Amino acid sequence: MAWLDTLFAQYQGVSAPLIVLELVAVIFGMASVVLVGKGRLAAFPVGIVSTAGFVWLLWVYGLYGDMLINAYYTVLSIYGWTQWSQQAQQAAFSVSPFTRKDAKICAGLSLFSLLFVGTVYWFKPYLQNGFSFSGVELGWAQFVWTDYTDIFTTALFLVAMWLMAERKIEHWLVWIVADAVSVPLYYHKGLLFSALQYFFFTLIALRGYSQWKTYLHNQAATPSASP
């Protein structure tokens, strides 16, 4: 079929191991998000398989911002795994309220991400030139729209992952925006399966937000529920 040929034309010349790695990372990533929606602790080890795979894949494709955020996901997944494990030993799964302190932390994480990832993209020509400044020009003129988009989504993902580890329902809203923006970004970069993953992530995040609203409603009706 012509439309299938058009879609999968992006994978012409791509090695089979990279395609398999992307598929494995996508499958485990989607499974992880579904498990988060259900409040399952298994979401974290499953998610680590996905994020670790994407670290290598995104380095190969030159999406340095998302590569760094997946490395961060891997580390923070361990933190979230620990946090959720401790809470699971105390009571049934519960959602934590969003506070002013959380807002300040989110603002700080966003600023750090924008500055750090922006700096990485500033030096992108140097990285792509084999870590050599020979014949390299740096500056805003070297940025393209995908660089700015990746910097923006990286900041959102950074905040969303931290909020998720802290069991804040607001993390779903951040995921929804970041996932939706990532669909055209990854398709443009030639990562079709990843683009489809983010499309389904958007749908799953919408459902996850609805599920966690139900958890919040049940907590409000149960005074003994843990915060």
Automatic annotation (TrEMBL):
Organism of provenance: Neisseria lisongii
Name of the gene this protein is made from: pnuC
Family: Belongs to the nicotinamide ribonucleoside (NR) uptake permease (TC 4.B.1) family.
Listed name of the protein: Nicotinamide riboside transporter PnuC
Alphabetically ordered keywords of this record: Cell membrane, Membrane, Transmembrane, Transmembrane helix, Transport
GO molecular function terms listed in the Swiss-Prot or TrEMBL record: nicotinamide riboside transmembrane transporter activity
Membrane protein topology class: Multi-pass membrane protein
Lineage summary: Bacteria, Pseudomonadati, Pseudomonadota, Betaproteobacteria, Neisseriales
Keyword Transport included in the entry's annotation: yes
PANTHER family tied to this protein: NICOTINAMIDE RIBOSIDE TRANSPORTER PNUC (PTHR36122)
